[in-house]
Specification:
Layout lengths: L2 H10 L20 E4 L2 E3 L2 H11 L6 E5 L5 H10 L4 E6 L2 H10 L5 E5 L13 E6 L8 H4 L2 E11 L2 E8 L2 E9 L11
Parallel strand pairs: 3-4, 3-6, 4-5, 6-7
Antiparallel strand pairs: 1-2, 7-8, 8-9
Helix pairs in contact: 1-2, 1-3
Length: 188
């Protein structure tokens, strides 16, 4: 997947449609924007960098953890196309409902995260997993949901990481320092 395709997918899924009315006029800012409940819609340049690391492809099975406004889920749906299955999980019920109403692709499914459970282990394995919230360390529960050759992109301990499932386990690479809201899976 080249950067041009990611850029086009991001344009096709206009950020302003995934933002609360009070911040929608700021949709073109390259900055995280508040979406309520202590959560943010990620900075577009960060989203593009994460998607480039993720290497999405047509017809993939993808999981978007901490999907928030649903914007990254819709972008993954755009990149995967109608043959893809994209699952989004979010813990905040109001954000789940808001993103369900914003996403127009029937192959993108938004679910309320089960408290205490990361991802959707019953629906795995996934070819691609995107995490848009900061964990303390490698979210092994999510790495375990990767299909062989699958890729997980997630920030933890202040650094963006790319995890690829191999025959021998996982291969992890670092990709710079980032700030995100904390990865939560036990409240609401």
């Amino acid at each position: 997947m080249n950067t041009h395709s990611i850029t086009e997918a991001m344009r096709a899924q206009d950020r302003r449609h995934f933002l609360p009315p009070e911040v929608a006029p700021d949709h073109e800012l390259d900055a995280p924007l508040p979406i309520g409940f202590g959560q943010t819609n990620s900075q577009p340049s960060t989203v593009a960098a994460m998607l480039a690391l993720l290497e999405p492809f047509p017809a993939m099975r993808a999981l978007d953890v901490g999907s928030g406004s649903g914007w990254t889920s819709a972008i993954l749906g755009e990149l995967g196309g109608p043959e893809a299955s994209v699952f989004a999980v979010e813990l905040v019920p109001e954000l789940v409902e808001r993103s369900r109403s914003a996403i127009r692709q029937p192959w993108v499914h938004v679910r309320r995260a089960e408290p205490g459970v990361l991802g959707l282990p019953a629906l795995g394995p996934f070819d691609r997993i995107l995490v848009s919230a900061m964990a303390d360390d490698l979210p092994t529960e999510l790495a375990d949901q990767l299909a062989p050759g699958g890729i997980l992109v997630a920030p933890w301990a202040g650094v963006m990481h790319r995890v690829r499932r191999t025959d021998d386990g996982v291969e992890i690479t670092d990709h710079g320092r980032y700030r995100f809201v904390p990865l939560i899976h036990t409240r609401f």
